[in-house]
Amino acid sequence: RILGEMRTHRDTLVEQALLVSTELIRVAILWGEMWHEALEQAYRRYFFYEQQGVDEMLSVLQPLAQKLEDGASTANERSFVNAYGADLNAALEHCRQFSRGGSESLLQLVWERFYSVLRQLGRELQETKSLQLEHVSPELLRAHKLELAVPGTYHASREVIAIERFGQTIKVMN
Questions:
Q1: What fold characterizes domain 2-171?
Q2: Given CB 3.0 to 4.6 Å as the disulfide criterion, which of 39, 41, 95, 109 pairs with 118?
Q3: Three-state SS string across the chain, please?
Q4: Distance of alpha carbon 123 from alpha carbon 120, whole angstroms
Q5: Where is the FKBP12-rapamycin binding domain (predicted)?
Q6: How many CB atoms lie within 10 A of CB 156?
């Protein structure tokens, strides 16, 4: 309701705020990081919950499996799918087969694939020192001369210090 009201007066500002917030989240939590965290969490749930472990594991992985199915929208996401998509999809299919009454041996195949991806992602994340905005959020790279204030600079009694543009490279802080 509030956003709707704001749109009637400052539609461009609202659209810019939505774009920037959505894209900053995309940049802050890349698919590799999401999958690494989810696989670690799924591993813990699988082994902690015993009989319910597969359901717990799948509940963690399902939202990311849906992202894979929906498809990549940036070069970074396409690169992730090219590197890990086959292993992840194969493991997820083994999970579905197990859930439909498959044998326990399927879970061995699941964790062989998932663990391989987890190890590779761990190394990759440690080695990442910077990101090129064109690969992780071309939308932010194209955004320029925004009405949106630079965070932390807005004061009602002063002129707005607006975002001019975003830099091409983002430094990763581990």
A1: Four Helix Bundle (Hemerythrin (Met), subunit A) (1.20.120)
A2: 39
A3: CHHHHHHHHHHHHHHHHHHHHHHHHHHHCCHHHHHHHHHHHHHHHHHHCHHHHHHHHHHHHHHHHHHHHHCCCCHHHHHHHHHHHHHHHHHHHHHHHHHCCCCCHHHHHHHHHHHHHHHHHHHHHHHCCEEEHHHHCHHHHHCECCCCECCCCCCCCCCCCECCECCCEEECCC
A4: 5
A5: 23-121
A6: 5
Mind listing the pLDDT tens digit for each residue in 44-93? 888 777 667 778 888 999 999 999 999 999 999 999 999 999 999 999 99
Confidence (pTM): 0.86
Spans of all domains in the chain: 2-171
Of 7, 29, 26, the closest CA to residue 166 belongs to 26
Q: Which amino acid is at 16?
A: Q
CA–CA gap between residue 137 and residue 72 (Å, rounded): 12
Q: Which amino acid is at 51?
A: Q
Which amino acid belongs to residue 66?
A: Q
**Range in 6-15, 89-98, 157-166 the model is least confident about:** 6-15
pLDDT for 101: 86
